[in-house]
Amino acid sequence: MNIGEVADRTGLPAKTIRYYEEIGLIRPLRGANGYRRFRESDVHKLVFLGRARGLGFSIEECRDLLALWEDQDRASADVRAIAKGHLTRIEAKIAELSAMRDTLSDLVRACAGDQRPDCPILRRLEDPAGPGTPHSG
Amino acid sequence: MNIGEVADRTGLPAKTIRYYEEIGLIRPLRGANGYRRFRESDVHKLVFLGRARGLGFSIEECRDLLALWEDQDRASADVRAIAKGHLTRIEAKIAELSAMRDTLSDLVRACAGDQRPDCPILRRLEDPAGPGTPHSG
DNA sequence: ATAGGGCTTCCAGTGACAGGAAGGTCAAGG
DNA sequence: CCTTGACCTTCCTGTCACTGGAAGCCCTAT
Q: What 3-state class would DSSP assign to A36?
C-alpha cells in the first residue's frame, strides 16, 4: 500500500505519516522504486497514533503507549500512569484557560464596545488593581 | 534603566524583553555602550504586554491592543472585538480539552492499573468502538 | 511523447520564546 | 594596574508537531 491510500484510510496527512517514520514511530518497507510500502500492521499503528494524538498525548507519550501496546506482557499500571499524568496536565490547562475565560468575559461584558475611547479592557490591562476590579467584600 | 532592572520590575525574562524589541513591540533607546536604555514608558508597555500575554492574547493581538492603547481616539468596539475573538477561541479550547478529559478520566477509571496486561485504555486506542464504549441507550 | 498525478527528499517556517557560547562593559577590591 | 564577577551584547540552536513548497523521479493513460 502506498502512502496516499494509507493517508485516506487513517485520516492522517501524508506529511504526518512521513514525519512519524522520520522520528521512528513506524517503519514501513520500501519498494524497488523507493516508495514506502505499508503493511496492515503499519496502518493499525497509525490509527492507534491518530487516536492517541487526538486525545492530546504528546509524541513521546505516544511512543511509550505504542511500545506498551506491542508488549504482550505489559502491566496495565504503566499505561494508566501515562494516561493519569496526561489527564493531570489537561486538567491544569483547563483550569488555567477557565481563569482566563472568567476574566475576559467580565471585561467583555464591562466594555460598551462603541465608538468612544473609554475601555475597561485596556484600563484593566494597564492596571489590574484599578477601578472595576472585583474584590472580596 | 538597564534590562536587568526592567526584568525585575516587569517580571518578564530579559530574553523575552529582547525578543519583544526584535519583533517591534517596544523600541528602547541605546546608550553609548550599546546597552538598551529603557524609559518608564517602555516599562509601562512591557507591563501591559505581560498582562495581555497572561490572559492568553497572541503576540499579534498584543500588538493590536498596544496600538489601540496608545491611540487616544480608539473606539472601544475595536478592543472589545479582539477580546471577544480571543474569548471565543479560549472557550473552544476549553471544550476540546474537556472532551479529552472526560474520555481520559473514563479510561483511567476503567483501567485496573495492576501488573496484568489487560488494559481498557489500549483497547480503546486500538478500537474506539470496541467493548466498554459508552453509547446512548 | 506527453500530461497528470503520486511519490521522493530537502529546506524553511510556524509561536513565543529558552539555552548557551563568545565576547564587550562596568564597578569594586587588592 | 589588574582581576574578579556581574551584567550586558549578538548570534545560533532547539523546542513541538507538524505544514508548505520546490525540484525532481515514477507510473499510468492517451
A: strand
